[in-house]
Amino acid sequence: MTAKPRKSQAKARQYPSVISWRFAFVMVMLTSVFVALLARAAWLQVVEPDMLVTQGDRRSLRVEADTVMRGMVFDRHGEALAVSVPVEAIWADPKIVIERNAPADERRWHALADIMQMTPQQLLSRVGDDPKRRFVYLQRQVNPAVVDYVKKLKVPGIYFRQESKRYYPAGEVTAQLIGFTNVDDVGVEGIEKRFNDLLTGTAGRKVFRKDAKGREIEVLERQDATAPANLQLSIDQRIQTVAYRELKKAVLSHGATSGSAVVVDVASGEILAMVNSPSFNPNNRRNTPVHRFRNRAITDTFEPGSTMKPLAVLSALEFGSATLDTVVDTSPGTMRIGGSWVRDPNNYKKLDLTGIIQKSSNMGVAKLVLDMPHQHVVALYNNMGLGEETGLGLAGESSGIFSYRQRWSDFERATFSYGYGLSVTAVQLARAYATMANGGINRPLSIIKNNEPEPGQRVLAQTHALAMLEMMEANIGPGGTATRAQVQGYRVGGKTGTARKAVAGGYGDDYIASFAGVGPVSNPRIVTVVVINEPAGDFYHGGEIAAPVFASIMGASLQLLNVTPDADTGPALISRAGGNNGN
């Protein structure tokens, strides 16, 4: 009887030990889990919190951007030359396309490829097979009809984005001058490139936090959009259109390689027209040769030929080696200088200064230039704007080829007087003639409409500048080399230029035909320069093919500007100058 109670007591004593072991195990495990959670929390919150912050921001932060249209470009009268129109871009989310297996729906996928002018395989290749990519453009600047069609297809993973596209209402008439933008709306040619910063605004941006229901609860950052500026050019679209029409007609009819024309306001130095042919359609540049993008009026240089003769005569007048009454004996019409010949087409015998310009005498200007230091001639040419940029500031503008060397042979000095040994651009030539037309004041040219013209710098005596206008008027009259430059109802003056194009080792058989002139002579308003490059056929002289273009452009421009006809007024410019040389 005494043994049983001992056994039950022993069992009773064993239970607490088992319970204690289990309890201890549970406590250790709970403590370990708690410590692990605490350590993990400490690691995430203190040591490396960026990951959680990033994950949270991805779920709650959103960014909204306001698109800003590019500024508009106008002519001097407010006619639009470049505008931006809203369009859309089509893009794909490769992850969604792959997860939803969008290509498996062949009807929709093939229709999407067809409207984008791609094969289904090309479209699939464009999207790719990398699910980590979340954005890829399929097509930019899509017209609204295509966008509406693609939206109706409802292809998974295909989305749309607002953007803008540049449109040029004048098309090829202003193509090289205005230039164009790329697919990202950044100017890459012409005015669009030169004033890209001015025409480009800054898009607005807002960073905010939203809750689980998509409601905005906090704005973290806000940046207001900056509106772009509009640009008003000095161009007169009416004159620009006339100039392009007449130039294009001449280039095509004479089989020329190219041509340029520039119209300048004499009083302000503003460019009223600047055209080139052949041109291109800036609204559809597909398959357009790159060389057509070039604004030849400012980039292409040429030897100006006889259009320099007025400057040579002015050099003699300014230096004092000749006066308005000087007579030069050009007999016998040829002159040998250092083993080379200077020739006139005929023996003009004795010529006054007006006769030298009227007959375009190489002998006459050569003898005038050889009677004075070459440094003076070079300096006057340079003061007239040759050998330097015109002030337009357009990308690609050339300063020409102009020599400042100290040693010149007599033959080089002689040929320099009639436009060989230097190269100019059409706008440089226009600037030089504008200087003569406004009484000897040289102003930089401007492509922007100016309310107040720059004061400029006097480089010629007023008497000499005005006298030269009458000499150039005689060149257009009977007996001159440019009778085809006459404008009905107006007194105009100008000078033809015909020069062989330089090749390696000398001169080839191609020509540059040019004409530069002023109108009306009684009160000069505009200067027009026409350059025809490499005309084909039997006609290649400036008086034959460039002068008629000048007449058409000048006549239409004077009428558009409401300039009173002055054909009945007599040549009295020199007397009006009153003998004041303006120095």
Automatic annotation (TrEMBL):
Pathway participation? Cell wall biogenesis; peptidoglycan biosynthesis
Q: What are the Penicillin-binding protein transpeptidase domain coordinates in residue numbering? A: 259-554
Entry-linked Pfam families: PBP_dimer, Transpeptidase
* Cell location: Cell inner membrane; Membrane
Matching entries from InterPro entries are given as:
Beta-lactam/transpept, FtsI_transpept, PBP_dimer, PCN-bd_Tpept
Q: What is its EC number?
A: 3.4.16.4
Q: Which residues form the active site?
A: 306
Q: Which domain of life is it from?
A: Bacteria
- What are the residue boundaries of the Penicillin-binding protein dimerisation domain, all occurrences included? 68-220
Q: Which UniProt keywords apply?
A: Carboxypeptidase, Cell cycle, Cell division, Cell inner membrane, Cell membrane, Cell shape, Cell wall biogenesis/degradation, Hydrolase, Membrane, Peptidoglycan synthesis, Protease, Septation, Transmembrane, Transmembrane helix
Primary localisation category: membrane
| Record's catalysed reaction(s) | Preferential cleavage: (Ac)2-L-Lys-D-Ala-|-D-Ala. Also transpeptidation of peptidyl-alanyl moieties that are N-acyl substituents of D-alanine
Kindly list the residue ranges recorded as spanning the membrane: 21-43
Asked whether the UniProt record includes Cell inner membrane among its keywords, one would answer yes
Question: Its topology with respect to the membrane?
Answer: Single-pass membrane protein
State the family it belongs to. Answer: Belongs to the transpeptidase family. FtsI subfamily.
Job description of the protein? Catalyzes cross-linking of the peptidoglycan cell wall at the division septum.
Query: What's the name of the protein?
Result: Peptidoglycan D,D-transpeptidase FtsI
